[in-house]
Amino acid sequence: MIIQKTFKNNLPTIYLVGTPIGNLEDFSFRAVSILQNVDFICCEDTRTSGNLLNKYNIKSKLISLHKFNEQQRIKEIVDLLLAGKNIALISDAGAPVISDPGAHFISQLRNENINFNVSAINVGPAYIHAIVASGFNNKENYFHGFIEAKNGVNKYKEIAQIISKYNSSAIVAIYESVHRIKDTVNHLNQILLSTQKLLIARELTKINEEFIIGTIGEINDYLNSSEFIEKGEFVIVVDKHLKEIETLSDQQIASKVQEYVDNGFKTKQAVEITSNIVNKNKNEIYNLYLKFYKKF
Where does the Tetrapyrrole methylase domain start and stop, copy by copy (predicted)? Predict the structure, then answer.
């Protein structure tokens, strides 16, 4: 599990900086300052980025980074981070990672045995900042906002339906308040498979910015520990569910259906949700449920 307190350590940082989509004056003071002060800027196209950088008198050294050389650049960037260098990543226009290079790059760097920060700058709303910084593959993403149900069975049902409907093809982003973050993550812990990855973002872009990245079980344990700081607004990002990542026994599959039934779902709904999660035919799952839980 990764716990990153971005501006409370002296680690080298990769800044994922959003750039103007058209008018070069649509740029923030902070983005300009970051780009002027980092040691290197990774650009999708150094010629295209040059127009923007020249306008704002940005002289940092440039590195070409695009979808065809992301993998080849990993070792070079690792060496720079180990040398304590700060790096910015920009795309030709808009937010890096969102339909642009960066997600695979960040994901691979996190697999290396090095300590560094990742922070998004100038990329719009909070959930985009969190998605961009996550390093999760985000060809598709679904933003839900706040969970409408406040607690109990209705909240569990709403979260389960979101995960069932969207998470097999897209990463899911949810807003949550300080008073409900633990409860929401606890529900996710019951719904998701144990290997599912999450990012929890807190106090984005502020001095207390924090990212927590790990499996749902690791994050649930951390949030219920004394180390967790219950302050600020939160963004939850659930990585896309890879159905092949975990094999459940017939008994475990039937138990998952029963768990949904116990939380207020009708049997048909519980079977459908379980089918989406474990990648099995609905009729097969229903028969397993009858075998283990509906004995006559």
Answer: 13-219
